[in-house]
Amino acid sequence: MFKQLILLFALGMPLIAGADTAPFSGGITADTLLSEHNKFSEQYKTFTPTAQDIALMQKLAGKELIVLFGTWCHDSQREVPRLIKLLEESKVKLASIEYVAVGYNKQDDSGIAQANDLQYTATFIVKQNGKELLRVIEKPTGTLAQDLTQGL
Questions:
Q1: Where are the alpha helices (DSSP H) in the chain?
Q2: Which tens digits make up the pLDDT trace of 66-100?
Q3: Average pLDDT score over the chain
Q4: H helices present in 37-123, as ranges
Q5: The predicted structure's pLDDT at residue 20
Q6: Looking at the predicted structure, is the pLDDT value of residue 115 above 70?
Q7: Any bridge partners for residue 123, and if so which?
Q8: CA–CA gap between residue 53 and residue 132 (Å, rounded)
Q9: Cβ-based neighbour number of residue 103 at 10 Å
Q10: CB contact at 8 A, 109 and 23
């Protein structure tokens, strides 16, 4: 009986230890995200944007972009690396870009997610002079480039 209790305790330890482990939250660079989070890196390596999507990204020139995502979120793991590759290959000159990871509660310590009314991850917000022009939530309806530039 004692051995069974020890075994049960030992098997449960990884669950207990992981219970307090929160995902990364806060500001992060694209390079750090890709180097420290394998699922993001894998998606980045396998994604090949079309020439049309690369050209569409030029519509974002001079705009501000806020990327709210979870390192734990499958939509974020798919879409954020695609955005990074689209931005790199298009060489578009944004006014600014901010990558903000959130915890399971969809909040970050600096309050950026709350200030932008984050409901679902990933959320991409395009702004100009601080005014929101559009947002893409979770999964684009077309390609990410199409949705990010719709109506611009």
A1: 2-19, 30-36, 38-46, 51-56, 74-90, 112-115, 144-149
A2: 999 999 999 999 999 999 999 999 999 999 999 99
A3: 90
A4: 38-46, 51-56, 74-90, 112-115
A5: 53
A6: yes
A7: 68, 137
A8: 22
A9: 17
A10: no
Buried b (16+ CB within 10 A) or exposed e, 112-144: bbeebebeebbbbbbbeeeeebebbbbebeebb
Split at pLDDT 50, 70, 90, the class of 4 is low
Give CA torsion, residues 28, 31, 33, 38, to 10 deg: -170
What is the C-alpha to C-alpha distance for residues 48 and 2, in angstroms, rounded to an integer? 56
For residue 65, give Cα distances in angstroms to 13, 74, 116: 41, 21, 12
* Span 126-143, pLDDT tens digits: 999 999 999 999 999 999
Cα end-to-end distance, the chain, whole Å: 69
CATH numbers and ranges of domains, the chain = 23-149 (3.40.30.10)
What is the residue whose two structure tokens read 């109506």? 151
Question: Six-digit token pair at 98?
Answer: 């901010």
| Helices 38-46, 74-90: crossing angle, 10 deg rounding | 50
Structure tokens at 36: 């420290």
